Amino acid sequence: MAGFYDIVIIGTGAGGGTLGYALQGTGARILLLERGSFLPQEAQNWDPGAVFLENRYKPDEVWESANGSTFRPGVHYWVGGNTKVYGAALPRLRREDFEALEHEGGTSPAWPISYEDLEPYYVQGESIYKVHGRAGEDPTDPPRSAPFPFPEVPHEQQVEALSHAFSRQGLHPYHLPMGIDLRDGGRCIRCNTCDAYPCKVFAKSDSDICCVRPALQSPDVTLKTGVWARRLIADASTRRIAAVEVKHNGVLSTIRAGTFVVACGAVNSAALFLRSTDGGLANSSGLVGRNYMVHNNTVLLALHPTRRNRTTYQKTLAINDFYLHGPGWPYPMGNLQMIGKVKAAMLKTMRPGWPTAPLEVFVRRSMDWWVMSEDLPCEDNRISLTSRGRIRVCWTPTNMATHRALVREARRIMKRAGYPFVFTERMGITTNSHQCGTLRFGNDPGTSVLDPWCRTHDVDNLYVVDSSFFPSSAAMNPALTIIAQALRVGERIAAEA
Questions:
Q1: Rounded Cα gap, residues 204 and 331, in angstroms
Q2: Are 321 and 172 in contact (CB under 8 A)?
């Protein structure tokens, strides 16, 4: 597999796939490397048992926690990365998320760029990923230079009624920005197997469909699948990467390039840096792998015992009234958003001993929510490698008093909205779909790994365009921000080529 390219991009998720799309047509010879293959279109795409109980689309891989116990991570290695099974919620971060914010649990640090720096690329990303939304409903909405490219995904009847019930409480419910192909003549059929499932009809705005396949129409873009990047090899100066060592079909080889871009996901990108040299590549700051964050997440099911939930496509409603502060809580709290309709198979993963029949009765009556609060950066929360090379995740959630307060408030408003029974389950270390922070960006090489353009301070031709660069996690879905930054970085790489 030896060869030379102008740019090698390792990973094809929201960051890597978008960057490949952004660089097509520049004349650069671009190679996309993906450790997985194309996810097959098959009946099991929409089978809850296959997806959640059999883990059909997750890798046969285990990571370790700090105490040495093992777990199967919530990651997916396919062309398109985790976007192949994500919920397709594509909101922007709030303007305040780019500034230093005081939380009950500590300070969320400022980013080295402002919301205004990223805003034009949010516009581009919303267009590429076909985002449907409505501006002006959410009081925390940041300013926009262009409208959403497509109108909001309309609520179904019971979700619309719930939205009105929240409005009567003085809240400001809004339509969650969604990346699905619901255009006139679009592919979306508004099924109930979207969130956390692969899309069998290619209607989800994932990196594979929106970016990788279009980019491959360019003669200058090549994709190689089934290729695992083992390590990056520096040249004699150590200021440049000369090659990436990869494994394909059990055989090691090297690929040379002028520029390397890592986009493996926050955990795997940090692991790649740590495998590349003793002490970690580009690690003069000592921060490679540190400040690992995921959101503090709780699944909330609001239940009316005699009212069946007949909603099919449920993930259209969200609330940000508590994002910057809450009633009786002067600190930022977080976001509430509906999730795709919960099925009994999903609950079986949390309660494997419970019989299926009563779970089916339960989920037919529930309205299902995701409660999300900010996880603050902490250097002790980190990614490292064991002596056998296995990934170790040391993570203790931060800012939990705030999360508990948000869960209490969510319970209260659900009951006021007419749902007398509310059940919650907090997500743990295996729920890492919003992982970020392990290679943070900043202006100071002493306190960051990457510069504001996501190039490493220590190595001149090495960039990172996944959520590793986040200095804070905020409390919004990260995908659109990864996409926007990839477009911004792509513009810089193209200008310097």
A1: 35
A2: yes
User: pLDDT tens, 172-181?
Assistant: 999 999 999 9
**pLDDT attached to residue 1:** 54
How far is Cα 480 from Cα 127, in angstroms, rounded to an integer? 11
Nearest C-alpha neighbor of 11 from the set 374, 263, 281: 263
What six digits make up the tokens of 195?
């969130």
Rounded average pLDDT over 467-474: 98
10 Å CB burial of residue 210 (0-12, 13-18, 19+) is buried
Whether 243 and 256 have beta carbons less than 8 Å apart is answered as yes
pLDDT score, position 236: 81
Residues whose CB is less than 8 angstroms from the CB of residue 474 and which lie 6 or more positions away in sequence, other chains included = 93, 94, 97, 108, 374
Q: What is the pLDDT of residues 154-192, one digit of tens each?
A: 999 999 999 999 999 999 999 999 999 999 999 999 999
What confidence category does residue 258 fall into, taking pLDDT thresholds of 50, 70 and 90? very high
* pLDDT category of residue 216 using cuts at 50, 70 and 90: very high
Please enumerate in sequence order all residues whose Cβ is within 8 A of that of 42, keeping only pairs 6 or more positions apart, or say none.
200
CB of 457 closer than 8 Å to CB of 445: yes
* Position 178, amino acid: M
Nearest residue to 199 (alpha-carbon basis) of 185, 212, 209:
209
- 263 Cβ partners below 8 Å, 6+ apart? 9, 10, 11, 12, 13, 15, 16, 17, 19, 269, 464, 465, 466, 486
Residue 383 confidence (pLDDT): 98
Q: Give me the count of residues in the chain.
A: 497
- For the entire predicted model, the pTM comes to 0.98
Residue 9 near residue 21, CB atoms below 8 Å: no
Tokens of 25: 């047509």
